[in-house]
Design goal:
Layout: E1 17-29, E2 33-40, E3 43-50, H1 56-64, E4 70-79, E5 87-98, H2 116-121, H3 123-126, H4 130-152, E6 156-157, E7 163-164, E8 176-179, E9 182-186, H5 191-197, E10 204-212, E11 225-234, H6 239-260, H7 262-267, E12 281-283, H8 284-293, H9 306-318, E13 323-327, E14 350-355, E15 358-365, H10 370-379, H11 388-392, E16 401-407, H12 408-415
Parallel strand pairs: 6-10, 12-13
Antiparallel strand pairs: 1-2, 1-4, 2-3, 4-5, 7-9, 8-9, 10-11, 11-16, 13-14, 14-15, 15-16
Helix pairs in contact: 4-6
Length: about 425
């Protein structure tokens, strides 16, 4: 007999024989009547054991079961309006597949609250809570929708190295690793590799990438291992071609969650609406003017701080905009591969996508001209020799191109109104946490 999930059983199946399995959520003993609640990935189901009408072995075992033990039950469905789902199961047999140790370090029913560290220390038990599990089902729906959209626009999925010989972006926030007799690092991003691929004929690529960044931040927004949807596309005219892909990608991901994760959104008590397109575009200079009007001065040429992003988000929300682009950042605060603006070289063809006052996407049109790229590498006090394999791709016909990275954890944290970005990661890695 095949296993049946709780969510697949309906009262209309009254009288049918089924086999169910899962974790012991609760046991209630009323003397001659016992109730066993079993939890699987789809929900709860009730097994009802009247002493006079079920096998003695099953009745006795039910009285000894410890919460979170794994059991298998065979029995018949009985329509019962007062039971979860409108049905109960009268068992012919109960098999204990694996008993749980006691006491439990965490209450998966949620009756006893636990702080985030306790939850992360016992992540597997924590994931048995429907509201925690729902986050990762929603994550799956969002990523699947993202993949569908990108494939519909002729992007192909690639996988670039996670072990690299030099910094991807010229920074010092690198994790060094022992790589035989050579110095190597964990990749900050797939940036250099996805750009190199633009010269290969694979002119639209994406990757569900992992970033490793040795930042010492200890906030609710920072992790040292993060994931992102990283894209690069060739034969663009300017950054506007990229912005159109991003806004449609984000909209499709949200639509995918709405369409395919309805039950999980209900578990979290959320109701989402698809965003309107196109997203507003405001320049860096316009953003500074808005902030100035709100009493916050950001010197020209400096990046936006967390405080200034938040204030800008408040201003945009008053206009009914939660998703908006900031464009034309000063070139000096952007990585060496960023294309200078043709209108004014002190600006760049770069952008961020902000969501409720937080950056979730960063990207730009890239420099595709070899001599200009070498010049910009030197301008950032970097050694072109360290980028020799990267630069080689630009010598033999590199088309105009650009791309972006969309931070998956930040996107989910904001979309689902989570209190901490660690809630959007199965096993987060931050400055203090290396286990489990």
């Amino acid at each position: 007999m095949n296993r049946t999930y709780a969510g697949d059983i309906t009262p209309k199946m009254d009288g049918e024989e089924v086999k169910v399995a899962g974790w012991v959520h609760d046991v209630r003993d009323l003397g001659g009547l016992r109730f066993l609640l079993i939890r699987d990935k789809t929900g709860l189901l009730q097994v009802t054991l009247p002493k006079k009408h079920v096998p003695k072995e099953a009745f006795d075992l039910c009285g000894k079961l410890v919460r979170e033990s794994v059991v298998e039950v065979k029995g018949r469905i009985k329509k019962m309006s007062k039971a979860p789902g409108g049905f109960e199961i009268i068992p012919d047999s109960i098999e204990l597949l694996n008993p749980a140790a006691t006491p439990l370090p965490l209450d998966p029913t949620g009756r006893v609250n636990a702080n985030l560290d306790t939850r992360l220390d016992n992540r597997i038990l924590d994931l048995r809570r429907p509201e925690v599990r729902a986050v990762f089902r929603i994550r799956d729906a969002a990523l699947e929708a993202g993949r569908r959209f990108l494939r519909s626009r002729e992007f192909i999925e690639v996988h670039t190295p996670r072990i690299i010989s030099t910094s991807s972006e010229g920074g010092t926030e690198l994790f060094p690793i022992a790589y035989f007799e050579r110095e190597a690092f964990l990749a900050q991003s797939p940036q250099l590799y996805k750009q190199m691929l633009m010269a290969s004929g694979l002119d639209r690529v994406y990757e569900i990438a992992t970033y490793f960044r040795a930042e010492e931040h200890d906030t609710i927004w920072h992790l040292n291992e993060v994931t992102a949807i990283d894209c690069e596309m060739a034969f663009i005219k300017n950054e506007e071609d990229i912005l159109k892909i991003i806004e449609n990608l984000v909209a499709e991901m949200i639509k995918g969650v709405i369409a395919h994760a309805k039950d999980d959104l209900e578990v979290l008590g959320l109701r989402l609406e698809p965003p309107d397109l196109p997203f507003p575009r405001i320049t860096y200079d316009e953003a500074l003017e808005i902030l100035q009007e709100r009493g916050l001065t950001v010197p020209w040429g400096e990046d936006l701080t967390t405080e200034s992003e938040k204030k800008l988000g408040e201003a945009m929300k008053e206009k009914g905009q939660e998703l908006y682009f900031i464009t034309k950042y000063p070139l000096k605060i952007k990585p060496f591969y960023t294309m200078p603006s043709s209108d004014d070289p002190k600006y760049s063809n770069s952008f961020d996508l902000e969501f409720r006052g937080r950056e979730i996407v960063s990207g730009s049109q890239r420099i595709h001209l070899y001599d200009l790229l070498v010049e910009q590498i030197k301008a950032k006090n970097l050694n072109p020799r360290n980028f020799r394999y990267y630069l080689k791709a630009f010598k033999y016909g590199m088309p105009p191109h650009g791309g972006f990275g969309l931070g998956i954890e930040r996107f989910l944290t904001l979309l689902l109104d989570l209190p901490n970005v660690r809630e959007a990661v199965l096993f987060p890695r931050d400055r203090k946490r290396l286990e489990p």
